[in-house]
């Protein structure tokens, strides 16, 4: 039986891509799931396909008050969150910084950095109080390297890297673990969101090579969570075999 059985797992951005795949993998382990995203209809559909005890909630993680309200009003059985997967995030455009629009920066900074901070601030105190828990942040290779047009997105993921390291320092005197999973190219709705619904452009991102799937990342997230309590996986960088760095891709 998995050591995850009956643990409570909170996943932000569970309505698509990596977050949705992670919800499915965790549900196979007998956990209780709290699934959050803005598209609540999608979460409700997902819930129908999953086993076990699942609470879905509509949440825009950019809204500080909404984050605090959702966390403080969780039903009793979901209140003690054991694993927080800070997955919700997005890229907006690939424009040069001096040509980009301000809204794209606000979107990325508010979601990828501030939203992650709001959720962490709301959830970590009860982990510290119970002296147990695990925060798994989804960073990116963009948190280690900068690629053309990546400017602000890469800055937000560099921030996630720094925040992850800071959290680990802050929590070293507790049993709370902090990990980050930093993928290269994964085929999800990410590019469609980045290119504001331009499906053709988004498809091209994943053509001519074999990208990672959301399941590949979800497997790793669950594996990290399943390590024994004294083992803290600090960081996992995952590339498709056809990728060697943020801007080196063996595209045919
Ligand atoms: P995706 O398919 O577009 O999924 C993104 C998820 O984030 C959706 O469920 C979306 O839900 C949620 N989200 C976005 N803004 C939100 C907000 N303000 N409040 C709540 N939820 C929000 O993309 P993905 O590839 O799975 O991305 C997941 C994470 O992986 C992101 O942090 C991304 O930066 C990271 N990542 C992706 C790749 C890649 O190649 N795909 C590579 C490295 C890292 P709603 O729209 O319903 O709110």
Quick one: CATH superfamily?
A: NAD(P)-binding Rossmann-like Domain
Spatial strand sequence of the major β-sheet: 3-2-1-4-5-6-7
Discrete helix count: 8
CATH architecture: 3-Layer(aba) Sandwich
Total number of β-strand segments?
Answer: 9
- State the end-to-end CA separation: 43 Å
**Cα gyration radius (Å):** 17 Å
Order of helices and strands: EHEHEHEHEHEHHHEEE
**What molecules are bound to this protein?**
NADP nicotinamide-adenine-dinucleotide phosphate
% residues in beta strands: 15-25%
Summed up, the domain count is 1
**Overall average pLDDT:** 98
Structural class: alpha/beta
CATH first level: Alpha Beta
Helicity level:
40-55%
Q: What is the CATH topology descriptor? A: Rossmann fold
Basic shape: globular
How does the major sheet shape up? 7 strands, parallel
Question: Uncertain regions: pLDDT < 50 for 5+ in a row?
Answer: none
What can you see in these coordinates?
By secondary structure, the protein is of the alpha/beta class. The chain has a single domain (8-184, 213-247), classed as Rossmann fold, CATH 3.40.50.720. The chain has helices at residues 17-27, 40-49, 64-72, 102-130, 151-170, 190-194, 199-205, 214-226; strands spanning 8-12, 32-37, 54-58, 83-86, 133-138, 176-183, 235-238, 243-245, 248-249. The chain has a 7-stranded parallel sheet with strand order 3-2-1-4-5-6-7, with helices on both faces. The protein has a two-stranded antiparallel ribbon with strand order 8-9. Helix 1 (17-27) packs across helix 8. The radius of gyration is 17 Å and the shape is globular. The model has no long low-confidence stretch (mean pLDDT 98). It binds NADP nicotinamide-adenine-dinucleotide phosphate. The site of NADP nicotinamide-adenine-dinucleotide phosphate (NAP) has 29 residues, from helix 1, helix 4 and helix 6. NADP nicotinamide-adenine-dinucleotide phosphate is lined by residues 12-13, 15-19, 37-39, 59-62, 87-90, 111, 115, 138, 140, 183, 185-186, 188-190, 193.
């Amino acid at each position: 039986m998995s050591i995850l059985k009956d643990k409570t797992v909170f996943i932000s951005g569970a309505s698509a891509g990596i977050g949705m795949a992670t919800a499915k993998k965790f549900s196979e382990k007998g956990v209780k799931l709290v699934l959050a995203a803005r598209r609540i209809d999608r979460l409700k559909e997902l819930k129908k396909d999953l086993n076990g005890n699942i609470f879905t909630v509509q949440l825009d993680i950019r809204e500080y008050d909404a984050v605090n309200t959702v966390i403080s009003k969780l039903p009793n059985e979901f209140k003690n969150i054991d694993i927080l997967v800070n997955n919700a995030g997005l890229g907006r455009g690939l424009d040069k910084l001096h040509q980009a629009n301000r809204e794209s920066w606000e979107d990325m900074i508010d979601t990828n950095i501030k939203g992650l901070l709001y959720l962490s601030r709301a959830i970590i105190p009860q982990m510290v109080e119970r002296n147990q828990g695990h925060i798994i942040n989804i960073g990116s290779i963009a948190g280690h390297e900068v690629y053309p047009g990546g400017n602000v997105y890469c800055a937000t993921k560099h921030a996630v890297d720094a925040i992850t390291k800071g959290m680990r320092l802050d929590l070293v005197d507790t049993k709370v673990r902090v990990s980050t999973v930093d993928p290269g190219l994964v085929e999800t709705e990410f590019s469609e969101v980045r290119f504001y619904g331009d499906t053709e452009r988004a498809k091209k991102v994943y053509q001519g090579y074999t990208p990672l799937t959301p399941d590949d990342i979800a497997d790793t997230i669950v594996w990290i969570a399943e390590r024994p309590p004294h083992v803290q996986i600090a960081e996992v960088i995952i590339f498709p075999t056809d990728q060697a760095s943020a801007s080196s891709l063996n595209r045919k």
